Amino acid sequence: MALSKKNALLAVIIPLWLIIATVGLLFSSKSTEKPFDPSGALYLASNKPDFDSQVNRILHGALATSLNNVVVHITSNNDCLCQLTATRHIKSVKDAAEHIGKRNETVYFENIQGLSSILTSTPAIAVFDDLGNLSYLGPYSTGIGCLSGNGTVEPYLDVKSTLGAIVPLESTGCYCRV
C-alpha cells in the first residue's frame, strides 16, 4: 500500500515539476531574447550610401591589415551571458571560416573607435569577401540562446564577391548591449 502512495505522489510531483521547469525556461528564454539593433543605429547606418566603406574603414583601422577574406569576430570586454552561450557557435563559425581559407580576427568593441555609431550589440560578426568588401555584418545567429542551429552567418562565409553587405536588421536573440 505504501508503494502505491509513493507512486501516486511521484505521478503528481514529476508532471508538476516538468510544468514548472518548462514555464521557467520559457520565461527566462523570452527575457534573454532581444532585438540585435534595439536603438536602430545599425538600421540608420546601413541606409547611408557609404555604409560598407565606413565599416571597412573602421575595421581596417582597428586591424591595420588587409580585409581580403577576413572574418572579424566582434566581442565585448563586458561579461555577458549571451556571449558565453554563443561560445560554441562562435568556435564552429571560426572553424568553418578557417576551413574555407578565411582568416579569423577577433576585436573588442570597446577598443574600436567609431563602431558604437553602427553596432550596439555583441556578439557580432563582419565577413569580408575575396576583394575585401563587406558581405555580412550582424549577429552570428537568431533565436533563443544564439545557438548554431539558428545560424544566420554561415551562408555568407564562402561568398566570393558581393554587391553590398547583408545586414539582418530584424534579428532577435540573445545579445549583449554595449
TrEMBL record:
All copies of domain DUF6436, residue ranges: 57-177
Protein name: DUF6436 domain-containing protein
A Pfam family of this chain: DUF6436
Originating species: Brumicola pallidula DSM 14239 = ACAM 615
